[in-house]
């Protein structure tokens, strides 16, 4: 079985462990940037996932992470609100399509049965957005003229929402945080929609904690809870949260929480630390990424607690 097929055939933790090690050795052989990184650390051969070194996510801003035997099929770039845009050179966009469809169907349901509305203006303006690529594909799957991207016409989203309800369709609204807050302040009732917030304020508003953001959105949109999509340019897989703001992992993507001051040690007892992600779908770039996000492990998944500030990135700087 080819390694690509193995990735999407994982069903157990034992499968994940085995395939993750296979991906690691493949990337050591084929991704020069990751190989050089591991060699600089003089890292011993790992025998389990916890022994695999995670590449700081900043490398996507400074290096081309791509298997030497592959060519780039599509390029995704981050929003760049923090300065330099991260770039993900994707060798096989079908891996991304398989991955995001798997996660979306598992957590949200089949797109073909839904009306999907997207409030993602900053992502559309920047261009090369993996999120826009994903949502556009999901919108097309709905095969419904009510679905679509909405930039600034808040009245349109209300009309489409009400029309979808009359058709007895499940309505899913993807929105960047500041756009959803703008919508919430209009006082419309979206109590029958599933609201999925993604991204941050993109410099448009003051950043809020996830808890405070969701509180304001619940109140303004009259929803029992707000879901979140946690993904990034550097990943080909996503996480979705439930009503308790807990993000669940899947057969393709797992999270480990590292100590904030020691990137090679993991936290215990639910302590907050840096989020390390294993994304098997990233087979042709790098599947082992140390993010700048803070989180903690909880029952059935993990929660996001914020981001490192400049004084907190000492561990990542040691690696760089």
Number of domain modules:
2
CATH topology of the largest domain: Luciferase, domain 3
Largest sheet composition = 6 strands, mixed
Level-2 CATH architecture of the largest domain: Roll
Short characterization:
The protein has 320 residues and is an alpha/beta fold. Helix content is 34%, strand content 21%.
Report on the structure:
Strands 5-4-6-7-8-9 form a six-stranded mixed beta sheet, with helices on both faces. The model is unreliable at 311-320 (pLDDT under 50). It has two domains: 3-71 and 246-319, Luciferase, domain 3 (Roll), CATH 2.30.38; 96-230, Rossmann fold, CATH 3.40.50. By secondary structure, it is of the alpha/beta class. Helix 10 (210-221) links the parallel strand 7 and strand 8. It starts with a helix and ends with a helix. 34% of the residues lie in helices and 21% in strands. It contains eleven helices and 13 strands.
Topology:
Blueprint: H1 3-7, H2 13-30, H3 32-41, E1 55-56, H4 59-62, E2 74-77, E3 87-90, H5 93-107, E4 114-119, H6 121-126, H7 130-142, E5 148-149, H8 154-166, E6 170-176, H9 177-184, E7 193-198, H10 210-221, E8 227-230, E9 239-240, E10 253-258, E11 273-279, E12 288-298, E13 301-307, H11 314-319
Parallel strand pairs: 1-12, 4-5, 4-6, 6-7, 7-8
Antiparallel strand pairs: 2-3, 8-9, 10-11, 11-12, 12-13
Helix pairs in contact: 2-3, 9-10
Features:
single chain; 320 residues; alpha/beta; Luciferase, domain 3; Rossmann fold; 5-stranded mixed beta sheet; 11 helices; globular; disordered C terminus
């Amino acid at each position: 079985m080819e390694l690509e097929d193995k990735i999407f055939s994982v069903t157990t933790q034992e499968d994940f462990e085995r395939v993750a090690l296979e991906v690691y050795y493949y990337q050591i052989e084929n991704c020069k940037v990751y190989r050089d990184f591991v060699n600089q650390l003089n890292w011993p051969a790992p025998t389990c996932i916890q022994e695999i070194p995670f590449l700081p996510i900043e490398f996507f801003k400074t290096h081309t992470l791509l298997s030497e035997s592959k060519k780039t099929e599509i390029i995704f770039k981050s929003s760049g609100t923090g300065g330099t845009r991260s770039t993900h050179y994707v060798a096989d966009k079908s891996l991304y399509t398989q991955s995001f469809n798997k996660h979306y169907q598992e957590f949200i349901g089949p797109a073909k049965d839904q009306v999907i509305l997207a409030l993602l203006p900053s992502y559309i303006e920047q261009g090369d957005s993996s999120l826009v690529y994903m949502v556009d594909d999901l919108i097309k799957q709905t095969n419904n003229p009510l679905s679509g991207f909405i930039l600034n016409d808040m009245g349109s989203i209300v009309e489409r929402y009400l029309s979808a309800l009359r058709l007895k369709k499940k309505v899913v609204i993807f929105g960047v945080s500041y756009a959803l807050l703008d919508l919430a302040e209009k006082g419309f009732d979206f109590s029958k929609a599933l609201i999925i917030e993604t991204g941050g304020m993109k410099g448009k508003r003051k950043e809020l904690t996830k808890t405070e953001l969701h509180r304001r959105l619940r109140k303004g949109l009259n929803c029992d809870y707000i879901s979140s999509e946690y993904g990034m340019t550097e990943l080909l897989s996503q996480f979705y949260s439930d009503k308790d703001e807990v993000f669940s992992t899947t057969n393709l993507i797992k999270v480990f929480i590292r100590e904030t001051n020691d990137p090679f040690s993991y936290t215990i007892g639910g302590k907050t630390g840096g989020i390390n992600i294993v994304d098997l779908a990233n087979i042709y770039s790098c599947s082992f990424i140390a993010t700048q996000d803070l989180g903690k492990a909880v029952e059935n998944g993990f929660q996001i607690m914020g981001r490192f500030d400049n004084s907190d990135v000492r561990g990542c700087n040691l690696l760089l």
